[in-house]
Design a protein that fits this description.
The complex is a heterodimer of chains A (298) and B (269).
Chain A: H1 2-15, E1 19-23, H2 32-37, E2 42-44, H3 49-61, E3 65-71, H4 80-88, E4 94-99, H5 117-122, E5 128-130, H6 135-147, E6 152-155, E7 177-180, E8 185-189, H7 194-203, E9 209-212, E10 215-217, H8 221-229, E11 233-241, H9 246-259, E12 268-274, H10 285-291
Parallel strand pairs in A: 1-2, 1-3, 3-4, 4-6, 5-6, 8-9, 8-11, 11-12
Antiparallel strand pairs in A: 5-10, 7-9
Helix pairs in contact in A: 1-6, 3-4
Chain B: H1 3-25, H2 30-35, H3 37-47, E1 62-65, H4 71-81, H5 86-89, H6 120-133, E2 140-145, H7 152-163, E3 169-175, E4 178-179, E5 182-183, H8 184-187, H9 193-199, E6 203-208, H10 212-220, E7 229-234, H11 257-268
Parallel strand pairs in B: 1-2, 2-3, 3-7, 6-7
Antiparallel strand pairs in B: 4-5
Helix pairs in contact in B: 1-3, 1-4, 1-11, 3-4, 3-10
Classes of the chains: A alpha/beta (298), B alpha/beta (269).
Chain lengths: 298, 269
């Protein structure tokens, strides 16, 4: 996903001279092509994420579309007040990119597990929160975000995620992307769990619908209402803590649809997510997902 | 009148309006608002290139107030400069007013909302970097308190600015020696502050922050600098009203009617 991201950003930066990329000293062997092509619009601030985010706010005030880049929790939790107060309160055009969502940096330990980012960031006003499901969604999302003003957060996976979509999906803010239409259950996946959900349905010969949610915020109620009307139950899956995450966001949307009488019955909803725990052992991403119960039957 | 007399008069008017705002709203932070008044009177009197009728004019100099809690004297300065009227400012701290008790970017002439300490210098660095890359001539000023130099984020920015040769950036430290819960010396000593900045490769000027002449000369010298400049302004918390001076209480207290009247008398002298 990170390669897909930087390729698309370079493409956009060729026609948009306002795009600026800042890193907190990470992105070795990924960001160099951008640096070489646009040295005047690239900056490595050093290992200083609070300053990175403040500097990004300042550059955005002067008209740049600024992408900050780092891994896991560093461009988000480490500098969350700069995100909230400098970027989001001033509604500045800063896009925060975190590589290594979920357990992508599995063996590096809890410091590198980005498993609370949705919850912490989706409460902040003005901030769009995104987690594309594959490299194709990533590129579509980068295009959309370079054209849309305002703050956004994008959680990427790492490298080597397979393409799930066969063509470039039409990505609209707040809308899910249909991966396959089926019946009975609707499976909602966000971020890099998409590959697992896709394979699970195929391998078990399940005719459920599968939707990828590149947006955790906003989530448009209209799309959810339609899906509910044609399915009996919903399963959400995410590589994030169960509280305040993607499944929680879906629950909130459904609750508000009920409250507004836009649906008549609260659907059965199963949330597959991390059960309020850290993982403190080594292992692959697959292994850690298993420990956290993300491979429960859909 | 001489420039010095103008600054003195401007400073007097800023303090009087600040005192009135704090008194009527029963607000806090007058000590830190007073300590930076003479810096504001010189900056807004003769240094900043700004247009009160066009607060967002692209070529303007930028002034960032990092110690957002001291916003009353900045609001007073901006009102007296004509960014908005004193009548509008009289809504300070009332329901629905844009004049919050910490600096608010909704107020014409205020670049950035501040209130959480240690934020504005990084943003100022970003603006300074943008100006450099776009070869714009305007300058970027950022005023911090001494207490907020406890924040690590400031030191990230202090390391950053010289590395990127941000010669268009001017940092002013309102060094009034008193922070929120005690003196700087007791809470977390900054001394020797000038040497710290020198070690970080800043151009350092130390001045009496209540001498208009010294303040002005410090600002004049910036044009020749190739490094970012820090002006360490030695100031007195509560400067201008004797019972507020060097007194921690006036980080919080708002004046009674009697104290307001005595303060006004002293400022009118």
């Amino acid at each position: 996903m990170r390669t897909a991201f930087i390729q698309k950003l370079i493409e956009e930066a060729k026609s948009d001279d306002k795009i600026f990329l800042i890193t907190g000293d990470l992105g070795f062997s990924v960001l160099e092509p951008f640096q070489q092509e646009f040295p005047d619009r690239f900056l490595n601030v050093g290992v200083a994420e609070q300053n990175m985010t403040g500097v990004a706010a300042g550059l955005a005030m002067e008209g740049y579309t600024v992408f900050t880049y780092s891994i896991a929790n560093f461009p988000t939790l480490r500098c969350i007040e700069q995100i909230r107060y400098d970027v989001c309160y001033h509604d500045l055009n800063v896009k925060i990119i975190a590589v290594g969502g979920g357990y992508a940096y599995a063996s590096l330990g809890a410091s590198h597990h980005a498993t609370e980012d949705f919850g912490m960031l989706r409460t902040i006003p003005n901030l769009t929160v995104c987690a594309p499901g594959d490299p194709i969604e990533t590129q579509a999302l980068v295009s959309l975000l370079t054209r849309e003003k305002g703050p956004a957060y994008v959680r990427l996976g790492k490298a080597g995620e397979p393409k799930i979509h066969s063509s470039i999906p039409n990505i609209e803010k707040g809308e899910p992307v249909v991966v396959r239409k089926g019946k009975e259950k609707a499976v909602f996946s966000t971020g890099a769990m998409l590959k697992y959900a896709y394979d699970y349905l195929n391998n078990n010969d399940l005719q459920y619908s599968l939707y990828s949610f590149p947006f955790i915020k906003p989530i448009n109620g209209g799309a959810i209402r339609e899906i509910i009307s044609s399915h009996q139950s919903i399963v959400t899956i995410e590589e994030h803590q169960k509280s305040a995450g993607f499944g929680s966001a879906i629950l909130e949307v459904i609750n508000d649809l009920m409250e507004a009488n836009e649906i008549s019955k609260f659907p059965s909803l199963k949330r597959i997510a991390i059960p309020d725990q850290f993982v403190g052992v080594a292992g692959t991403q697959e292994h850690l997902r298993g420990i956290s119960g993300l491979f429960l039957p859909i | 009148m001489s420039m010095d007399a103008d600054w003195k008069e401007f400073g007097r008017e800023i303090r009087k309006l600040t005192l009135k705002l704090v008194y009527e709203a029963k607000a806090s932070h007058i000590g830190g608002a007073f300590s930076m008044v003479d810096i504001l009177s010189v900056l807004y009197g003769n240094v900043l290139t700004i247009n009160p009728k066009k607060p967002d004019w692209e070529e303007r100099d930028r002034f960032f107030l990092s110690k957002g809690h001291a916003c009353t004297s900045l609001y007073a300065t901006l009102a007296l400069k004509g960014f908005f009227s004193v009548e509008e400012l009289n809504t300070y701290s009332q329901n629905n007013s844009i004049f919050l008790s910490h600096a608010s970017h909704k107020v014409p002439g205020v670049e950035l909302s501040t209130g959480s300490l240690g934020h504005a210098l990084s943003v100022a660095c970003g603006v300074a970097l943008a100006a450099k890359r776009k070869t714009k001539d305007f300058k970027i000023y950022c005023l911090v308190s001494d207490g907020e130099l406890d924040e690590g984020s400031n030191w990230e920015a202090i390391l950053f600015a010289p590395h990127h040769d941000l010669h268009n950036l001017v940092l002013i430290v309102d060094y009034n020696k008193i922070q929120s819960f005690g003196s700087v010396k007791e809470v977390l000593e900054l001394h020797p502050l000038a040497q710290k900045f020198e070690a970080f490769r800043w151009r350092v000027i130390e001045i009496d922050g209540h001498s208009h002449k010294e303040i002005y000369e410090a600002f004049l010298s910036i044009n020749e600098s190739t490094a970012p400049t820090v002006i360490i302004a030695h100031t007195v918390k509560g400067k201008g009203v004797d019972f507020m001076e060097n007194n921690l209480q006036w980080h919080y207290k708002s004046p009674s009617k009697e104290q307001y009247e005595i303060g006004l008398q002293q400022l009118n002298k």
